[in-house]
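> call design_seq(struct)
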């Protein structure tokens, strides 16, 4: 299946809900994949993203666009006409990635820690949502999700 990015930008305090979200699905996905990805990323199958759906009160229409995802030492992703996130993990003197534990947003999804990163030159400009330009801070979370 092609990649998918769900961008949620709730106004105010994230944990209080009242968020507005939009799902972006790779334009190369076939209709069957699009349907499955929408169910998955809108939290209807449970898993880590179910909590994000719980704080979303308005889903904007799904958009199909070219998605690019880069894993590795400097992860990044982009949605063709909307935005790009570039992460440079912060490391200690030994080269180990810096992590923050027990953060409220991630703990609710069952994650115990997150990696922190510089996110310079990252932005998100969806015309129906609040514009976002990184102030330099970024976070990384990885998880494994299996199933149908």
């Amino acid at each position: 299946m092609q990649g998918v990015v769900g961008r949620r930008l709730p106004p105010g305090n994230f944990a209080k809900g009242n968020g507005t979200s939009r799902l972006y699905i790779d334009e190369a996905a076939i209709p069957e994949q699009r349907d499955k990805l929408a169910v998955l990323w809108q939290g209807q199958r449970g898993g880590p993203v179910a909590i994000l759906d719980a704080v979303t009160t308005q889903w904007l229409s799904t958009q199909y666009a070219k998605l690019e995802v880069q894993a590795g030492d400097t992860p990044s992703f982009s949605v063709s006409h909307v935005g790009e996130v570039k992460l440079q993990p912060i490391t200690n003197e030994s080269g180990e990635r810096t992590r923050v534990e027990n953060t409220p947003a991630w703990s609710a999804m069952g994650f115990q820690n997150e990696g922190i990163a510089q996110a310079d030159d990252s932005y998100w400009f969806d015309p129906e949502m609040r514009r976002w330009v990184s102030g330099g801070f970024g976070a990384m979370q990885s998880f494994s999700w299996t199933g149908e």
